[in-house]
Structure formats: structure tokens, C-alpha cells
Amino acid sequence: MNTTKAIIFDDVDQVRLGDVTLPECKPNQILAKTIYTFTSPGTELRVLGGHYGAAGCYPVVPGYAAISEVIYCGADVKNFRVGDLISCRNPDQPFADCEIMWGGQAAKHVYCTEGEDAPVLLPGGVKELLPYTIAEVAAISLRGMLSARPVEGETALVIGAGLIGLFSAMFFIHAGCRVVVCDLDASRLKEAEKLGCYAAVNLSEPNSEERLKAFGNCGYDIVAEASGSISGAKLACRMLRHKERAYYRLSQDEMVQVNFNEKTWPRLVFQANYVNEAPVNPHDFIPGEGVLILTPQDRNIEDRQRVIELIRRGEIDPTPFLNTVCKPEQMPEYYRKLQNKEIFSLICDWR
Asked: Which fold has domain 143-294?
């Protein structure tokens, strides 16, 4: 029986390193050994808290981001080779004796080789793997940035300076936007400043909303909500740039009404998932004539490849996200550190 080590959530706030049984590797699949996994605090801590349906599924293996090496190829596999270094997302099948929510935190995995869940090959000749650990999680933020279609010189506000928020800020800066980040955590705001944000505003301070509006000239072209909180979602609506529903201009000696269209509306990008729901009054929610609401939710294979290429070219710097690396047996302790906000990113070294 082919077993492997994995991080297992046995129940709410219960974490251990244990053994799970790998599924059979089919002819169109590959087997890979994990080098690094990158933790997604938002998703994994919510699973650890019993959300997303986890309460009825324990024990589960969490996680969805890994850097691995191919150690076996099924007979029908043509596009991967033994020895390939890959960036991986969801494994193809559950473990034989344990549920997965998404099952990435393990020493070995069976992966499909086609479709959106297929691994992405790392660049040829790559020597330092650690920077590429961010690729799978960062690609979620890249998809959100691309969906907003930013124009160089626009203003972008990112609400929530967790990983998704900071990655979002990084990509909006790369797109040429003037970026402001807000959060309740001073240490996270320092990380935002390191990324090159125009300003970082602490929402726990007096008059923080007025401060945000001042940095955004009374409103932002793009607001990315990455806090996952109802208060953050409501703040996002208040921070959108307002335009009047209609105005008039003189044309051939008469006043003609001119309506704005969707090309001029501000954009609201929901980058987070929400445990709770909130009622919305559309007239309070929508500034002026309209707003484009974007819910990218996930990334595609091109987004994953694009992040890897940006890292390879040195166009984005993953260094601020690589500070905390631990071994698998230390992961229960480090999940607690994530819960207590002692650290904001975490990599597990499975070598």
C-alpha cells in the first residue's frame, strides 16, 4: 500500500502530521513528490475552523499550492517527464482513506496532466525554487487584477492586507496603478508599504475613511475587496469613485443629456470568499449610474503560467512572502501562528 505523509485536520482547530494512502496512478496521470507547499491562510484557516463544509468532512487534507518533482508518468502521458519541476494545484483524486479540501498539503500527489488542474512546468534551468511557491495563490489575485482591466494611472484601493490582498496590490502596482491598501493590522500594512504601495491606511485609527478618500481623491477607479468581511464589502462600496447618473451639454443650441456607460464605471472586484451574507440596498451600493461588479473566484492555467513568467523575469518580487519556512512536523504549531497573526505567510519544506 503506497502511503505518504500529509497534514490532516481531524476536527476544528485540530492539526496533525499523519499518513494517508495515495490513489492509484492511472495511465494518464503522474506521481509527484512535493518539495514545497505554500499555505493559503484564508482558505485553510477557514477549513480548520469548520467552514466551507469542512465540519461534516473531517478528517481532511487541506491546501492547494505545491512545487513538486515528477517521479512517475503513466503509460499514456506524453507532455510530462520524470524529473520535471512543476507548480501544482488540486490533486486529481481524494486519498484512499481521507477526504481532501483540496488536498495539497502532502508529501506526494497524483495529478492529472490535462485541463485547468494540470500542473504547470517551471522554466528550464531554474535553480531557486522558493520564489515560485507563491505562483498558485498569487494567480488568484492576478485573475482579479486582469478582470478589472486597469489603465495606467488609475487609482486602486485594496481592502484587506492578507495574502490575496497583498498579491492584488503587487499586481495593480505592476499594471501602473496608484495603489492604496487598508487593514486593521499594522504589521500587514508595513508589508504593503514594502511592496511599494502609495499609502497604507489603518482602519482602526480615527477618521480612517476620510483618510482613504483623501488618498483616492474622494473615490477609487478600482476597489478590490480582499478582507472576506461584511464590513470590508460595505466599505468597498463607499470607496468607489462616484459619477453623476447623467449630465447635460450644449449641442447645436440645445441641452442634450449625456449618460455614462459601463466603460466609465468604477470596478468592484470581490477577491475574497464570505462566510456570512448581508442585505444590500442597491441605491446605496451603486455609485452614480453604475458599477462593474467582478467576481473572478479562481485562476486559470494561463494566469498560473503568467505569474511564473513574471517571477522568472524579475518583474514581481516574491521575497516578502518567503520569510517563514518550516518542516512538516512543525506545521501544527505554525497554523496556530497563522491563526494568531504572528506570521502572514507560510511555506512547508517537504524535502
From this structure: Rossmann fold (3.40.50)
